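Chromate reductase
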Amino acid sequence: MKIAIIVGSLRRGSIARKIAVHAREMCESSPGVEASIVEIRDLPLYDFDYDDPAVADKPTPKEYTQFRETIKACDGVLFVTSENNRTIPACVKNAVDVGSKPNSDVAWKNKPVGIISHSVGRMGGYSSQKNLRLALSYFDMPTVGQPEVFLGQSDTLIGSDDKLQPEKTVAFVQDYVDRFLALAAQHKKA
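Predicted structure tokens:
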């Protein structure tokens, strides 16, 4: 089973990336699961002219095609995102938009999705997660229910080894990852 992980931060040393790397390890601790971080850094800003057959002088960027094909080839998508100004980071919204076209071949359609949000504040990226869920709801993506993962004061949850801590947080996130993988496996069988 192939899982795509999308990091909602472009910064190399971001907390979201550290959480995503640990979540990838959690995914791959399950037999038969291959998880990879799908980079969104180089996706050009979405412009419908790239996908409009009537616009001949703006070919679809190869980055769009590669991203869309990668998402379509996976069995589930796990977003790990921070919160920017009480919503999702611009890079995440851009990735959602790129994967949403062309209308006849949406990469996100019916893909199982999981979301782990965080913030250095106490609310744990609540607003970003809700905004991302709203954007993805259009694509009929099955998702894991309760409990959702909002990691508040996330700067205190990363140890010197760049992994999640304390153990109760690790166990909480591992449970979510396991439930997400079960959803993806069930969806793949169907």
